[in-house]
Every structure is written in structure tokens, then in C-alpha cells.
Amino acid sequence: MSQNPNLSQPFMYQNAYSPNNGQPPTSLNPNPMNGPPSQNTQKFSPGNLGVSPARMPQPIPPQGMSPYTAQNYYASNYSRPPSSTEPPMKPLQNLVPPPGGTNLSQSASPKNLASPFPVEKQNSPYQNGPFSPFNNSNSEQNLNGADPSQVNGIGATNRLMQPNQNMPPLSPWAQPPRMPLTPGQPNQKLSGEGMPPPPTSVPPQSLAVDGKAVPTLSQVPSSSGLPMPFGNQATNSSSPQVTPGTSRPSNSSLNLPSIGASSNSGMPPPNQRNLSDSRQFTSPQASNLYPPNMPYPPNSTPGSLQPGPPPVGSQSTPVRPRYPQQVGYNQSASPYASLGQPNNMQPPPVSGYNSSPQLPPTSAFNSSPHLPPTSAYNSSPQPPPAPTCNSSQPPYSQQQQPPGPLYQGGLPEGPVGGVAGYDPQLHAKMAGLSVHSSFSRLWGNDSLNLLQDRNILPPVPIEAPKPVLTPERPNCSPDVFRCTLTKVPDTNSLLQKSRLPFGILIHPFRDAASLSVIQCNTIVRCRNCRTYINPFVTFVDQRRWKCNLCFRVNDLPEEFLYDPATRSYGDPARRPEIKNATIEFIAPSDYMLRPPQPAVYLFLLDVSHGAIETGYLENFCKVMLENLDELPGDSRMRIGFITYDGSIHFYNLGEGLNQPHMLVVSDIEDVFLPSPDNLLVNVHESKSLISDLLTDLPKRFASNGDINCCLGAALQAAYKLMSPVGGRVTVVLTTLPNYGPGALKNREDPNQRAGKDISNIGPANDFYKKLALDCSGQQIAVDLFLLCSQYVDIATVSCISKYSSGGVHYYPGYHRTVGRLQVNKFAGDLKRYLTRRIGFEAVMRVRCTRGLAIHTFHGNFFVRSTDLLSLPNVNPDTGYGMQIAIEENLTEYNSVCFQAAVLYTSSNGERRIRVHTLCLPVVSIVTDVLGGADQETIIGLVSKMAVDRSVTSSLSDARDALINVCVDVLGVYKATMSGQVAGALMSPYSLRLLPLFILALLKHMAFRTGVSTKLDERVYAMERMKALPLQYLMKFIYPTLYPVHALDDKNAIHQDDDVVIPQPSILQLSSEKIDRHGAYILDTLDVLYLYIGRAINDQFCTSVFNVPNFSAIPEDLESLPELATPESERLRTFVTWLQDQRPYHSPLKIIREDSRDRHIFMQYMLDDRTESLFSYYEFLQHIRQQISK
């Protein structure tokens, strides 16, 4: 079949270091994952939201309305121009830096910064470096020597935790004085008299630092000669090509120092305390908590505009509260659509919502402007009004309620003596329900007092918020694609006002129960931006479709009209691409630069004296022999082995040999391959020799006394062996590399493990980083398995995995006799690792709607161009994060979309493309943004940002910035509340768990202080924060506690094979939830701890452990006994189900209350107070005090 003329040329794959006279590739055109920049980008005015309030005519009150009611009538239905007599509100520092044009040059003067963070170093091992916002271009460039730029942040002010006299200190060290909320305006308050007026607005186009023009990122020279590091950002594709080791030419007379050139060693000024760096600038107007003075959309009311109660004796017509319109409601069908506000004065609807109708007056409630929220007998319940800014009206629960014989819950009282059909018990239960709360939660406007509702954790798993789209279409699963905001603000200033981080988390290669796979001759894509057709495109007719990212109209090929399910031609909307937000294509040959390579696996095994003492080699060889046939690959699959100590040992496994031949290379300074062939052999052809080698290895090195470890030289040999074909290198390391290239020294000071500022979190040198970049260019990924009890400098050696899209697995204290828990976990993890699905030669690109831009990446990869991630290997156990910037106003859009496409080679040699598309609505009110926040995704993103902050600045700064997340967001929400309760800490329902999870991060091994923590364990925890998918990351941050002493079938999961899985309630991590008469399972992702109370029932001991009492329960059990009792079957089924919910093995460890390991269990009680940190309730009090300052 001839190629479609509307499609671009085939995608030509090219690695980062392909031969081009030693230069990076200048172009990969045409690229299916790239597109030219938009030529018709339209900019919108921030104020283009409707009629100016100052030009609106004066309203005429309804006839017969009292002056008091008329005053409220005016306020509730008409916007008013800003008044100079209104007290201004103090602007807060920016939680998120302004995206778009913000760049490094804006950090020249700290006094002009909206975010007090220092300049971030380019050579950060946790971040691939920043880049400026880009436009889609068909040209790709290598990022060697790329300039860093702005990193989005989430904190704003220096709010160090300073407890009062009645509060325990956050840290054992002295606290510096509190910094002013705004530079140059000290001692400000969130409310009260004497506040400074809001500063003058500065247009975004006239950014300046100290009165000087600010150059763009491309005008800033670079001092680094290394390629773009892991997790990082990329440069603008229009920038000139940069050769490794060279600097970018400057086009401006204003030359600012590059990242890392600061003379203060990268430490921030005293007033810089958030998760971004100091390269931020925002106009003062963006910091103001006041909403813009403009007509309010119909699903909200302006501040101080809610109708208050009428004077006593007034018979005025009541006014219903307005609420967001339900999907499908036809305003024109309502005879009361124009009540409360003239039709000609309605502002334009926002995000697809229609204007809210006003209901007719009800004679039974003439004395109150609002009907009771739970009046079930007179009218249908009405949703509550959205929280408004600066409103003087109290919350709905405090408003005047209509008189009458009503219970507290709002239901009418039953007749005295009872009447047929009246159930007092049912009435008592229904009286406690609140339709107001239910509707508020549905519309995202519900709030709660965190200090009052201390048991905030729900008893069931937290459900991901679902974006509400009109019309509803199949959206991407939250297990694959999630955004921190399910309602996207339409302007950057609104995003800054919300203080919420804007980003996405993606799990692109997740194991899917069902996946639609399509094989077609033509993959339909946008000719402009190269977006794949998806459920959110618009069909102009049956021959044309409009792209949902760049809005270009494209032609449909004839093939797309064919429905493979019904085998008929017709409506193109029946195609699987339109019915599924996740789809996979089998790519034609156009998407290949070379034929798909076979799956190649190479294993590097440490056989030094320390490695032999741990006994890992027997365990490794046993698991390999058991799963050799399960390795993913086709008949061409190849495998090889290298062992190393002070020398490098190769193994010739060529067909025809009677036994494996070991070839030793002792010259590790200049590594070479001793044989050109038979070091990588076909698994099926040489299976007998491979089995012999795995059986013989533990015996061959049993008496090895060489204490040296030449890891660097062994990796260089692996690189030379794998370069022609690419593949996966698996490294097992047990000791610190101390010999040959890449040798390291012990940098850990045991006396500083509990300090507040931890040093040596970053790498000691760039040897492993440079080698990883070479591996990435040849499609080689390196995975590390660290089995050790001593320091191995994970911060340095892990670079070989980070920049080559590999992974790190750490087993501290591994030993065959004293560390059985780690031995079992390593065996289970290795089995999963060997048999899981894998993709080779992969690249991933994330596209977004015009007006949005991705500016920071988090994860293990190499950034090849502005938005193209190089992934030599992709696996189902790794996730990625991206931070998003709003570069242009989205006021004309009802929704925005993100699309991630992964092009990879399967283990069977097929070239495939997996596409995920996520669509989110656009809103224009800050309360809608807060109400649509995804608290789990926010925690996942800020944890990655805090890791970068710890490396580029200090651990204490990262901790302070995490605290600022709560202070800033809840402070913004307090400012938008219509009524405020003294001493309360109000939070939107969508963010109710944010303080709890932030406290868990502060107490986590990655960020905690005051507790002795080994440096390797801390760095490994940070590594996992960057790479874990959100589903597992949340359990890693805040483990799950289950009571299991009384399991039953209530709320159980019933599987198809008649297996009933109990589902006990989830408890908060507090010792007050632990009963001495109970048994509990703590799921920490890595280990399942079964804690048995001292006073446990003897019947439970007999039914579960087959022992008479508590004292007879053995602690060395590796699994529960299989007993034919209901209690045993339920508990074993539940434990097995938990272990199956994660990719790697989670062994079970039994801890009795009188055990010496009890402290391991109790350290996970994160809600309790520790020596260096608050309890959860004290932490809430501290946040409230910080907001009130």
C-alpha cells in the first residue's frame, strides 16, 4: 500500500552518541514524536473574561424588597469595581514560580525574587538540569553543555518551624528569626489593619532585575561540558547546537554566572526556603490573594456578596444559593433561569458550566433566604454555594435556619405517638446525614477543620479524584497518568495564587490487565504537532479531524473508517483509538532505524572476599537456574557473565565446548575483550554450558581471598561487549569499589548521621555518570543490586543506573545466616526482575496542549532533546514525573490534554508504540483549583522536588520548603473562606491529608533529622522517591496499618475462583490505635510486619500459629502456618493478596510486643511525637500559628 501523503517521513531512530564526526546529531527529522512550532499562537489577555465590572449598569431591585435585602441582593448578583477604601490583603510569596519566560537570569537580585531559593547546580545527580520552555519543533539537538534554567518550586517564604513555649521544638537546634513574607515589607499579617497596599502590577513582558533587562536562557553561557544530567530539563530546540565541552554563545550584553558558579557554595540566602531555586520572578500582582476584579462566573459568587438574613419580620422573597450546573441541565428549560440577576448582565460561563437557575420562592420559609440543606419533604436538596473570597457571610452551618420542628440533622420530627411508616431508629440515623456536605464534596467545595477532625485518614484506600469532563469521554487510568490538579487554572497568575505545584506523574509501562493492540498500515497522527489520534479529538466530518493539542484540522485516511470490531465501514468514532485513552500500536518499518535487536542480558557478579562471605552467590545462581527459561525474549536471546574482584573474569560459553572456559584480564587500567566471540551466547543453544557455569560459580570462588573490587573496570568491559547490540547489564555489588578506574573512598562520618545538614549526598566524581551517558548512547541500561552491610557510596555508584534508565536495589545487612529477611527479599525480587516484561531501545515524549510546557523531568533517564527522554530499557516498575508551566492563557479552552508516547522494542523483536492521553477541565476560580487538587499526586511531585532541593542546597532547606507547602496552600484557602472560625485550621476536602503526608515526609528516612540514619540508606530512600510509581510511593511514604485480629467477610473482595479476601479497615499510624489485645499488619511496601500484642487472645494464637498462647509464638517464622481454621485461612489470604499488590517481594516478619525488634514497628507510628518532630496534632497547631502570623 502506498504511503499516505499526509504523513511525514518515517521516524529514524538515532542514539545520543551516533557517529557524526564526534558531534551530536543535528536532526532526527522527521520524527513521529515531534512537530514544528505553532505558527498561529494566539495570546489572550488575562482580563478577557467578560464585561468589565466598572461598566455594568446599576441594578434595579425587585419590587417590594426591603433595603437590607436589596443591599445583599445587589452584592450577590452584581460585580462591583474595586474600591480604594477596601483594606488590601498582604501578598504571599509564590508557591510555584511563574512558568514561561522565567529563566536563570532572573536570579540576579534576591530582593526581586518571588521564590527564595538558591541557584541549582547543573551536575545534580538527581536532576537532568533545567531547560527553558519550548515549542514543538522538528529538530532535535543533543543537550551536551546545555544551560540550566528555571525549576518550578512550591514554597514561598522562610517559615522555619518555631514552636511556642507550649510546643515541642521541631529540631534540636536553634531556629533563626522568621523572615518577612514579602521582601521589603516586614512584619506583615494575613489580615488586620495597617496592611500595606498591594504593589503595582508588572507586565510579564517587561521583566527586569534591578532595572536591567533580563536575557533569555539561550543568552546565558554554560560552564558545564557534560551532557544533560538525569531528571533534568532541556534547552529550547531553537538554540544553537552545542558540542560537549563547549559553551553556548551569548547574545546579550548581560552575562550572568552559570549554575554552580556562585561563590557561596550553592547555599541559599537566609530568606530562601522553598522547593524551587532562586531563579524566579513574579509580578507583585500575581502574589496578591485578592481575586481579580471581574464578573464572577455563574458557579460562584463574589466576596461579601452572599445574601444575608433579612430583618426580623421581613417577608421578602428568599434567594437560593447558586451552585455549579449539573451536566446536561438545560437552562432555557427552566422558567426561573433569570431570577436573581438579569439575563443581559450574566457574565460568560466558564469551563462549560451553564448559569445556575434560581428556584421559585417557597412560602413555608419566607423568614430565611436559604432553605434547610436536608429538607427532604418540601423540595429537592440544593448544592451549597462555592466558597467565596472576602465574604462576610458565615458558613452554611452557621447561617440562620428556618423555624419549625426540626431535628439538628434537618429532618422533620415524627408525630407524637408514632404513625404508620415512621421508624424512629431510621429517623435517628437519617438525622445525622448532611446533604449540604455531600453536595459540597461533589462540587469540590467542601471544607473541614483539621484540628477538630483528627482521625482524618479514611478506613478504605484513597480513591484518585476523577476529572469531570463535559461531555464525558474515556480518560486515562489514574494508575497510569495523574496530574496534581484535576482542574487546570486558565492563567499563570491563577496558578501562582493557588500556591499549588502543577505537574504530572506517569507510569507508562505499567502491567495492564487488558490493553488494546492495533496493527494498521497508517498510524493516524497530527501533521503539525505529531499527536496520535485519541478520544479527545473532534471530528469535523467523516474525512477530517481536529487535533486536541494544536487544533489543526487533519485528513483521515480511508483505512480509519473501518471498524475492526464490527468489520464494517462507517463512523470513525467506533475505532479503538477513539474508545480507549491507552492504546498500543505495532509500528511499521517506518519507525525503525535498524532491525529490532535481540534481547541481550549481561550479568556482572562481585566475587571478592567480602562478596563470598555474604553467601549471595549461591542464592543468585539458584534463582537464575530456576528462571532461566522465563527470561523474556525470542529464539535470538543472548546472555553472558562477567565476574570481578581485583581482576575481570570472562566466560567463553561457545557451542561445542565441554565446559565453560574462564578468561582472566588483570590489566584493569586498559580493559580489553579477550575473545571477540562466544562471550555473549544464545540461551537456547548453550543452555547446558550456562547451567554448568551457574552450578560451578559458588564453588570456584569459595576460597577467594582478594579484597579488591574493580567495579569501574568491569563496567567498562561490559560497555565494550554490549555496544554493538545494546541490552541490559545487571550488576551485583557487595563492597565499596576501591581498585582501578572509578575507585572510591569512604566519605561517611558516623558522628554526623543525626545532624540537621547532611553532607556527601551528591556523587564524589563523575566517572560513573560519564560512563552511563556512553551506555545510554549505545542503548545499554545498567541495574544495580547492592548487597552489603558497609558503606558503598550509593550516591556515586548509582549514577550508572540513573542516567542509563536503570534501577537501584539495596539490601542492607545482607548475610546468609544473620540476615534471612534480606536473603528472602533478594530472592523474590530477583525472580520478579528476571521474568518481568521489558522494552529495549525506547524513547518517550510527552506532549501537551498549546499554551502549556514541560520544564523539569524527574526519574531515571537521559534527556535527549527538549521533551524526548532516552530510555535504553523500560520496565513496568518505574515511574516518571514532569513539572508543567502555563506559558499562555487558557481562557478560550474548555479543557487541556497531555499525551505520553513510548516507542520501544519488545522482547520478541516487535517495534511498538504505547500511547496514553489525559484530559483535564479548565477553570478560572481559585477555589475550583483548590477543590480539584490531587493530594497524593502533589505529595509524589513535591517529594521528588525535595530530593533535588536536598542535593542542590541542603537538607534543612528542603525540610523547610516542605513545611511551606502546607502553610502556603492552607493560607491561601483561609483567605478564600467566606467565614472563619477562631482557632480553626480549615482545609479543602481535596487536601485534607496534605499535612499528614507532609509530616510523614519530614519523618521519612530520606529527610529526617535528629535520628541516626546511615548515609547509604538515606540516599537510597531519595533514589526511590525519584523512581517509584505513585501507587507504591505513597505506601513508601505513609505505610498502611491493618487490624487483623478479627478478620471477617464484611466488605471482602470476592474473586472468580471463589477466593474471599478480607478487607480490614485502615488505621492511622499512631500508637493509640494499637491495642495490646490485638494483632496488626503494617505494610511498608518492602516488608509486612505482623505485630502481636502481649494480651492477644489464646484462641487467636491457636487458630493462626498453632501454639497455646502469646509466649509460644515463634518470631523466626518466614510464613504463616497453613491451618484448616477460618482465622488462619483469612489471614493467609490477606497476606498473600497484599504481597501480590506490588512488583517486588515483601516478606513477612513477625514482631511480638516483648521483642527486641519492637522499635522497628513503632518507628513507623508517624502520627506520634518524636524527639525531633511534632506529633500530627502539634504539627497542625504549628501550621495554624504560621498562617496566623
From TrEMBL:
<feature type="domain" description="Gelsolin-like">
    <location>
        <begin position="1062"/>
        <end position="1134"/>
    </location>
</feature>
<feature type="compositionally biased region" description="Polar residues">
    <location>
        <begin position="159"/>
        <end position="168"/>
    </location>
</feature>
<keyword id="KW-0968">Cytoplasmic vesicle</keyword>
<feature type="compositionally biased region" description="Polar residues">
    <location>
        <begin position="352"/>
        <end position="380"/>
    </location>
</feature>
<dbReference type="GO" id="GO:0005829">
    <property type="term" value="C:cytosol"/>
</dbReference>
<keyword id="KW-0653">Protein transport</keyword>
<feature type="compositionally biased region" description="Polar residues">
    <location>
        <begin position="327"/>
        <end position="344"/>
    </location>
</feature>
<dbReference type="InterPro" id="IPR029006">
    <property type="entry name" value="ADF-H/Gelsolin-like_dom_sf"/>
</dbReference>
<keyword id="KW-0256">Endoplasmic reticulum</keyword>
<feature type="domain" description="Sec23/Sec24 trunk">
    <location>
        <begin position="596"/>
        <end position="834"/>
    </location>
</feature>
<keyword id="KW-0479">Metal-binding</keyword>
<dbReference type="GO" id="GO:0008270">
    <property type="term" value="F:zinc ion binding"/>
</dbReference>
<dbReference type="InterPro" id="IPR036180">
    <property type="entry name" value="Gelsolin-like_dom_sf"/>
</dbReference>
<feature type="compositionally biased region" description="Polar residues">
    <location>
        <begin position="66"/>
        <end position="83"/>
    </location>
</feature>
<feature type="compositionally biased region" description="Low complexity">
    <location>
        <begin position="130"/>
        <end position="139"/>
    </location>
</feature>
<feature type="compositionally biased region" description="Pro residues">
    <location>
        <begin position="169"/>
        <end position="180"/>
    </location>
</feature>
<dbReference type="GO" id="GO:0090110">
    <property type="term" value="P:COPII-coated vesicle cargo loading"/>
</dbReference>
<feature type="domain" description="Sec23/Sec24 beta-sandwich">
    <location>
        <begin position="839"/>
        <end position="923"/>
    </location>
</feature>
<feature type="region of interest" description="Disordered">
    <location>
        <begin position="1"/>
        <end position="420"/>
    </location>
</feature>
<feature type="compositionally biased region" description="Gly residues">
    <location>
        <begin position="411"/>
        <end position="420"/>
    </location>
</feature>
<dbReference type="GO" id="GO:0030127">
    <property type="term" value="C:COPII vesicle coat"/>
</dbReference>
<dbReference type="GO" id="GO:0005789">
    <property type="term" value="C:endoplasmic reticulum membrane"/>
</dbReference>
<dbReference type="InterPro" id="IPR036175">
    <property type="entry name" value="Sec23/24_helical_dom_sf"/>
</dbReference>
<feature type="compositionally biased region" description="Low complexity">
    <location>
        <begin position="391"/>
        <end position="410"/>
    </location>
</feature>
<keyword id="KW-0862">Zinc</keyword>
<dbReference type="InterPro" id="IPR006900">
    <property type="entry name" value="Sec23/24_helical_dom"/>
</dbReference>
<feature type="compositionally biased region" description="Pro residues">
    <location>
        <begin position="84"/>
        <end position="100"/>
    </location>
</feature>
<dbReference type="InterPro" id="IPR006895">
    <property type="entry name" value="Znf_Sec23_Sec24"/>
</dbReference>
<dbReference type="Pfam" id="PF00626">
    <property type="entry name" value="Gelsolin"/>
</dbReference>
<keyword id="KW-0963">Cytoplasm</keyword>
<feature type="compositionally biased region" description="Polar residues">
    <location>
        <begin position="1"/>
        <end position="45"/>
    </location>
</feature>
<keyword id="KW-0931">ER-Golgi transport</keyword>
<dbReference type="InterPro" id="IPR036174">
    <property type="entry name" value="Znf_Sec23_Sec24_sf"/>
</dbReference>
<dbReference type="GO" id="GO:0000139">
    <property type="term" value="C:Golgi membrane"/>
</dbReference>
<keyword id="KW-0333">Golgi apparatus</keyword>
<dbReference type="InterPro" id="IPR006896">
    <property type="entry name" value="Sec23/24_trunk_dom"/>
</dbReference>
<dbReference type="InterPro" id="IPR041742">
    <property type="entry name" value="Sec24-like_trunk_dom"/>
</dbReference>
<feature type="domain" description="Zinc finger Sec23/Sec24-type">
    <location>
        <begin position="523"/>
        <end position="559"/>
    </location>
</feature>
<keyword id="KW-0472">Membrane</keyword>
<dbReference type="GO" id="GO:0000149">
    <property type="term" value="F:SNARE binding"/>
</dbReference>
<dbReference type="GO" id="GO:0070971">
    <property type="term" value="C:endoplasmic reticulum exit site"/>
</dbReference>
<feature type="compositionally biased region" description="Polar residues">
    <location>
        <begin position="260"/>
        <end position="288"/>
    </location>
</feature>
